[in-house]
Amino acid sequence: MRIVLVGPPGAGKGTQAAYLAKNLSIPHISTGDLFRANISQGTDLGRQAKSFMDAGNLVPDEVTIAMALDRMAQPDAENGFLLDGFPRNVFQAEALDKALTADGLHLDAVLDLEVDEDEVVKRIAGRRVCRNDSSHVFHVTYSPPKKPGVCDDCGGELYQRDDDSEETVRTRLEVYHTQTEPIIDHYREQGLVVTISALGKVAEVTKRAMAALEEGGRAA
Prior knowledge:
single chain, alpha/beta, 9 helices, 47% helix
């Protein structure tokens, strides 16, 4: 299957992508991983991306598209892939459509993880990270530490990252609504969008997503 995963920040796309890709035996292709891999490997695209990032600018669509298409052309993606973070806007979506059509391929589904804004803010703004080890992550509501402000694992101080503040989260949501959400309508016109609720336990959402993908094209 060839799938695009969409949803607002805090919808759990990264977590669901990993589980779905494993269940479907297809590679999980995320924009973040593409940037890191190309930069660390010193590819031409990686050098281009780094030059923009170092200058504090967004990586141009053309560079992002080239990276994604190059990754999708690798042998492990021959029978399908799950795209996470790409396409990020309608221009990228149209470029993906064109590239797939040129190869005689097509997307099978666009999985839209639906969650309301208040829940997104609650999920992200409630995160607390250990200053000693950023892999130690807690949540004031969903997975609170035994002692407020103290990491259960190492006793380090827990803090809220700047990009997890409510103000920043709402700004990220506005960017999502303006730039990324329009691709849902773009793909809905093609009958590809499958919308599911991203609320509940991870396993429940994964099960819901797999059922929706099997049904194909119908909201669940």
